[in-house]
Design goal:
Helices cover about 20% and strands about 30% of the residues. By secondary structure, the chain is α+β, with helices and mostly antiparallel strands. Pathway: tRNA modification; tRNA-queuosine biosynthesis.
Length: about 270
């Protein structure tokens, strides 16, 4: 386990505080993982966001009546830090028995605390539990999952990425993405979408590459950056977007995307599994 995770609440017994406590948030420097990918923090080849959705958010009105909501957070990939997921859950739980004047105040406090910890402006949106904006959708493009592939590699291997000389523009996706938490070893299930313009990616090989993350231990955000960099270096596309939609765990789901500058992201898309 890396030094930046030794004191993290993930994988440890934790008290569930129900009174507001912003000190529960645990930041992790993005630079640690990016160094292993030979990325320069001052000259990143991508832009992007980590989109979080929280389904277990509640607080009290000034009269003590509970309010429930669903929150969406967008953390820019340019932030110096990400937030460890269990600490985020513990922080949100600390709202449970705290009285706030209004949902406007809750949103202000959330934005203020999260932005301070990641050292960048975090976008916060609150939804009612029946808001149609949360209705699930489907990933666009070609689904690779029915391809007949033989797989014997379960750690990321960029050499699995194969291209030919034809220049194309396409969108493909797979629901077979699985990686593991680097602290607890628990499985993280997800779907991934890849949109690019450049030398055609061999679909069978690309699916085998996606599956190769199956025993890999890394945070969601790191997996997406690794996938983006592997495709960028091996295929040398002119345009590239990699977006993952991970299944909810502990009341939170995480959907990071990374894209070459100028690429239009696919936002506010939730899948049935989330």
């Amino acid at each position: 386990m890396s030094d930046d995770l030794k004191d993290a609440p993930l994988g440890q017994t934790s008290a569930y505080i129900t009174e507001y406590d912003p000190t529960l948030l645990y930041p992790i420097a993005r630079s640690v993982n990016r160094a292993s990918l030979d990325l320069d923090e001052d000259d990143l080849p991508f832009e992007g966001e980590d989109e979080w959705q929280a389904f277990e958010l509640s607080w009290l009105t000034p009269t003590g009546k509970p309010v429930v909501a669903i929150a969406r957070f967008r953390v820019p990939a340019s932030s110096t830090h990400l937030i460890e997921s269990k600490s985020w859950k513990l922080y949100l739980n600390s709202f449970n028995q705290t009285r706030f004047a209004s949902s406007v105040e809750v949103r202000r406090v959330l934005r203020q605390d999260l932005s301070r910890v990641v050292d960048a402006e975090v976008e916060v949106t609150l939804f009612g539990v029946d808001d149609m904006a949360l209705a699930p959708g489907r990933l666009p493009g070609i689904c690779l999952d029915d391809l007949d592939v033989e797989v014997d590699t379960y750690q990321p291997d960029p050499e699995l990425i194969i291209t030919d000389n034809e220049i194309i523009e396409e969108t493909v996706h797979s629901h077979l993405l699985k990686s593991n938490c680097p602290v607890t070893g628990q499985p993280d299930w997800g779907s991934v979408l890849i949109r690019y313009r450049g030398p055609a990616l061999d679909h069978h090989a690309l699916l085998a590459y996606i599956i190769s993350f199956r025993e890999h231990q890394e945070f969601h955000e790191h997996c997406v950056e690794r996938m983006f960099m592997d495709i960028l270096r091996e295929a040398e596309p002119d345009q590239l977007l990699v977006m993952a939609r991970y299944v909810r765990r502990g009341g939170l789901d995480i959907s990071p995307w990374r894209a070459m500058p100028g690429e239009t992201p696919i936002k506010t898309l939730r899948l049935m599994r989330q």
